[in-house]
Amino acid sequence: MFSGDHRVRFAGRIDNEALLQLLPHFSINLWPAVNEALGMTFLESQARGCTVVAGNEGGVHSVVDNGHTGILCPPRDSLALARAVDSLLSHPEQLENYQQNARTYVTENHSLQHAATELRDIISHAITIQKQSNPTESAGNPDHG
Known about the structure:
Helix content is 51%, strand content 9%. By secondary structure, the protein is mostly helical. The termini are far apart.
């Protein structure tokens, strides 16, 4: 379908370090996501401004915001994947919008800072609940407090 299209390049197999260096030069990460549990590739791509086109299988929907940072297609539907890429290449303004959204989405929802904040909040909440359920135990014990 994309034969001869100068806008489409298949990178082939690339080691992880080289891939991270190349990602900012690509517009779309196309990955069928067969049996994909989460897909670090999608987070890495979006963090570097690549729009994701992927199969909506496994945990992919938890890291790609369909219609905002990329396009999720029915699982194992190669025609839907091809149509999504064709649509993005035909609408560069939409592609650019997804790319900008992707960077923001990963920073706000999947960055190390965001994860640290969520973990801190969860632990603080658990400590508060523990103190409320055992007020005499935590008040008299120097290890709680």
